[in-house]
Specification:
two-stranded antiparallel ribbon, 66% helix, mainly alpha, 4 strands
Length: 313
């Protein structure tokens, strides 16, 4: 046996030494017992694997159809075979969708609404949650928390008509009004998440900061808010997906069609896309691409933040 093969064999075969309660001299004699098992030969849970594969197919198959239809030419999209591979591959659908929906303008407005909603939701929810969590013994803050929780059960369609009239009268029938309303509707759930996370942060950290002369404002921004980074990422993901994919609120609040977001722009051209499925699917793909990319990157950041917080704890 060569020296190069020894590390490989040592990695493949792990030796475990544990005390044997039933040794050669009787029970509990503490004599060592050696067990050998091969690393990487764990039993596969086929039921869980099958469920995960099926769940993955429910996402991957529609995504494949979307990409395939977007890359087909006009004659291929009406042949009745959505799963066929595009041949030849054509990007004409993307060019037409880019022009018809005025994609750069819609993308800029959607990014503005989404970024404003995410930033406002994180900051306001963190403020409210910190005040509620640190003043829970006071009735005003405790009842405020219950009030916010009750707002979670009121969907936007129930209060749509009053909101439309109110935003129109005060001049907020524009993307700014959508940012304000989307933030308010995301505030309840975000406060719930932040409050639960703040209760796990020891009060001794804040007491140490106050002993060093830090004010409440300094304690929050320099100590508490950085510790909220994992939960801020989670809240930001929910707010991002809600604001980016929302169709009803922008369509009802924004009065100027030129200031509509991407989901509404796709609906405005839906009748024009009734026969040009490649243009429609290309528009859908361009609209969903930023959300998919942002979700993938922020999901990795959330997992890293949670792991870092667990190690520090």
């Amino acid at each position: 046996m060569t020296a190069l093969n020894q590390p490989a064999l040592a990695f493949e075969q792990a030796e475990l030494t544990v005390p044997d309660r039933q040794g050669a001299n009787g029970p509990g004699d503490g004599s060592p017992r050696r067990r050998f098992r091969r690393v990487g030969m764990e039993r596969v849970n086929w039921s869980t694997t099958t469920i995960l594969v099926l769940c993955s197919l429910t996402v991957l198959l529609p995504l494949y159809v979307t990409v395939s239809m977007a890359l087909k030419i006009g004659t291929q999209v009406v042949d009745g075979n959505a799963f066929s591979f595009p041949s030849p591959i054509s990007f004409d659908g993307f060019v037409q969708a880019w022009t018809l929906t005025k994609f750069p303008v819609g993308l800029a407005i959607s990014l503005l609404v989404t970024a404003g909603t995410v930033a406002a939701t994180i900051i306001l929810a963190a403020f409210a949650s910190y005040a509620i969590a640190r003043n829970w013994e006071r009735k005003l803050f405790r009842y405020s928390f219950f009030y916010l929780l009750a707002a979670m059960f009121i969907p936007f369609p129930v209060v749509a008509l009053p909101q439309i009239q109110l935003t129109g009268r005060v001049g907020l029938d524009n993307p700014a009004g959508v940012i304000i309303l989307a933030t308010m509707f995301q505030l309840s759930f975000s406060v719930l998440l932040f409050t639960a996370f703040l209760r796990s942060i020891p009060l001794e950290l804040e007491e140490s900061a106050r002993i060093d002369g830090a004010t409440t404002w300094q304690t929050f921004w320099q100590l508490i808010f950085p510790l909220l980074a994992p939960m801020s990422a989670t809240v930001g993901i929910f707010a991002f997906l809600y604001a980016w994919n929302d169709f009803m609120m922008p369509s009802l609040i924004i009065s100027d069609p030129a200031l509509q977001t991407l989901p509404v722009r796709q609906n405005l051209f839906q009748t024009q896309f009734s026969n040009n499925y490649n243009v429609a699917f290309a528009s859908y793909l361009m609209a969903m691409a930023p959300a998919i990319v942002a979700y993938l990157f922020t999901q990795r950041w959330v997992m890293a933040g949670v792991t870092q917080g667990a190690i520090k704890g």
